[in-house]
Amino acid sequence: MLFLLLPLFSSAFADTSPPTQGDFKSVKQKFVKEKAKFMNRAKDLLKERYDLGNSPAQKHTMTRGKAIQEGVRVRLPSGQSWESLANLSPDSIREKGLFPPGLTPLPHPHHSEGGMLFPRSTIDEIKKQTQRDLTRFDLDFDLPEHFLPEFPPAIFLTTRSDLGDVSQGKLITQRNFFDIFKNILNAKQLDGLRLLLTPFPQQQFNFTDDRRSALPHQGVACFDCHTNGHSNGATHLVGDIRPQEFRHRIETPSLRGVNIQRLFGSQRALKTVEDFTEFEQRAAYFDADIDRAVLKGINPLERGSQVHAMAEFQELLDFPPAPKLGIDGLLIKDKATPSELRGQNLFFGKGKCSSCHTPPFYTDNLMHNLKTERFFKKVTVNEHVSVGDGPIKTFPLRGIKDSPPYLHDGRLLTLDDTVEFFNLILEVRLTLDEKKDLVEFLRVL
C-alpha cells in the first residue's frame, strides 16, 4: 500500500529543483563550469551586506578559546545610522526601502539548487579521520570561518558535569567515539551515538548519478552538521516550503540543551526530539522528495530502538558552564561587571528580550512571528524570494556566544548585529551604550 501511495505523496511534496538530467559526466562538467559564477555571486552579496573583516573581541572567547567576533557587521543604507532608523516607523522604513539588506533573509549560495554545504574545517577533518569527502563539486560553503562556531566544539554531559568538556579536543567520529565514551555512557547511549555518527545516503551525497560528490558516496551523518552535538554552521534549505524560491536557508542549530526544549526544528514545531530525529532521516535528508529518497537509499529508523537510542544521547548534551549565573539563570552580583548587570536589567526591561527568552535557559519553548515583512517589500535576491520569516522557534540563549551566526538562517553574524536587528524589530530604541551593555550580558549566558 505504501508504494501505491508514493506517487500521490511525491506530487504534493516533491522538490522543485530539477533532478540530474543526462549522464553523470556531462552533468558534473556543467556544474563545475558554473561553480565560479554562483560562488562569486554569493560572495559579492556577502560583501555588499556585511563587513566581513576578522575583528575579534578582546575580553571574550568561546568555550574552547576561539575568538568571538565583535561589532555590527551589517552595512547600512547610504546616509543612515542605526539611531536614525530606530526613530522611523516600520511602515516608513518599508516605503522608503531603508531596511538594511543584511537584516533580510540570506539566500543559499545557489538557491535553485540548494542542498547541504559544509565548512572547510569539517570537510578536512572528516576526510582525514574517515576518508569520507563532503566536498561538493558544484558549490562551496560561503561564510568565512571566523564567523562560525569553534571547531571542534566542547561536549558537556548532564550526567557527568564533574568531567567538564569530554571531547578531549577532538572531532567525534566513528573512528574514536567508543574509546572516548566507553567509560562514560551506557550501552544504549553508546549505540545512539554510533547511529548519530553513521552516514546514510542524502540528496547530494549518495550512490546514484543524481549526486553532487565526485564519487559515489556513503552519505551524511547527523553529527556532520551537529558537530560534537553542537553545530559547525553548515547550511541547507528547509524542506517544508514550496516552491523552491520561497524555501528558507537554515543554519544548523545546536543540540545542546535539547532535554529542556519542547519544540524542535526552527519552524516545524516538531514535538519531541524523537520526532525530530526521525524527520531528519525520512524527509530533510532528501528535501522531502519521497521518489528520489527511495532511489537514493532512504534509511527508515526503527522508532523503538534506534530513534530512542539516538534521542537518549542527544538529551544528555548540556549547555557550557556559565560561572556568572546562579541556579535561577540570573547574574550572581558579586561576579558580574557593572556593564553585565546593566545589560541584564535591559534584557528584562526596556529591551523586551525576556518576553520570549525566559530564564534559566532563556527560552519560552514557543513559536513567535516577528513579522519582519513590516520592514521590507517582497524582493527576489539570487533566486530567493524574501517575503518575511513566519513563526520561528524561541531558541535557548544559554551558551549563545558559542553559536554564531545568529537567527535561523545565519543572517546575523555577531551578537551586536542581533541586538541591532531586534532593536528595530521590537521598536525599543536602545541607546548605543545600552546596546553594548546588552551584548555584554548575552556573552556571559
Properties at a glance:
445 residues; mainly alpha; two-stranded antiparallel sheet; two-stranded antiparallel ribbon; 14 helices; 8 strands; disordered N terminus
Description:
There is one protein chain. The chain has 445 residues and is mostly helical. The protein is 32% helix and 6% strand. It is built from 14 helices and 8 strands. The protein has helices spanning 2-13, 24-49, 82-86, 90-96, 120-130, 177-181, 187-196, 222-225, 273-282, 290-296, 303-314, 338-348, 415-425, 432-443; strands at 56-61, 67-69, 235-237, 249-251, 367-369, 379-381, 384-386, 391-393. The protein has a two-stranded antiparallel ribbon. Strand 6 (379-381) and strand 7 form a beta hairpin. Helix 9 (273-282) crosses helix 11 (303-314), helix 12 crosses helix 14 (432-443) and helix 13 (415-425) crosses helix 14 (432-443). The longest helix is centred in the N-terminal third of the chain and has 26 residues, at 24-49. The radius of gyration is 22 Å and the shape is globular. The N and C termini lie far apart (51 Å). Residues 1-18 have low confidence and may be disordered.
Q: What is the ordering of alpha helices and beta strands? A: HHEEHHHHHHEEHHHHEEEEHH
Spatial order of the strands forming the largest sheet: 1-2
End-to-end CA span: 51 Å
Biggest beta sheet attributes: 2 strands, antiparallel
Radius of gyration: 22 Å
Strand content: 5-15%
Task: Give the number of helices.
Answer: 14
Any chance you could write out the topology, listing elements then pairs?
Elements: H1 2-13, H2 24-49, E1 56-61, E2 67-69, H3 82-86, H4 90-96, H5 120-130, H6 177-181, H7 187-196, H8 222-225, E3 235-237, E4 249-251, H9 273-282, H10 290-296, H11 303-314, H12 338-348, E5 367-369, E6 379-381, E7 384-386, E8 391-393, H13 415-425, H14 432-443
Antiparallel strand pairs: 1-2, 3-4, 5-8, 6-7
Helix pairs in contact: 7-11, 9-11, 12-14, 13-14
